[in-house]
Recover the amino acids of this structure.
């Protein structure tokens, strides 16, 4: 199993979360477990505070078992997040919702008029 050597950092995806740790898929053959003790140097109350199912993360190989295709993983002391910050496409304007607030009654009135014309 030269592909996953002890100490190397690889990319994987979170396939499951349990109270005791995080399951990570590395490829079509290999998967691993980040035991709760390998998540942080601090006390981990809730594993869900660190990762989400489906998230792609970086993990360090702690130990590997060639026979079972299972690997012990860690995210301690590494920058494991791939996408640290999700930026929003929506930008708030200085006017905020005031434009919507002032125009909404006009738009509603106009639509009501259009619907009434169609009925006639």
């Amino acid at each position: 199993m030269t592909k996953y050597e002890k100490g190397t950092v690889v990319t994987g995806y979170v396939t499951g979360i349990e109270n005791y740790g995080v399951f990570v898929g590395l490829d079509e053959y290999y998967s691993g477990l980040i035991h709760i003790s390998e998540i942080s140097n601090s006390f981990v109350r809730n594993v869900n505070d660190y990762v989400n199912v489906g998230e792609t993360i970086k993990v360090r190989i702690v130990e590997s078992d060639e026979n079972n295709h299972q690997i012990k993983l860690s995210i301690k002391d590494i920058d494991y997040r791939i996408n640290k910050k999700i930026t929003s496409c929506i930008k708030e304007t200085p006017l905020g919702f005031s434009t919507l607030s002032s125009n909404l009654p006009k738009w509603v009135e106009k639509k009501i008029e259009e619907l009434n014309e169609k009925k006639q």
Summary: The two ends are 77 Å apart (CA to CA).
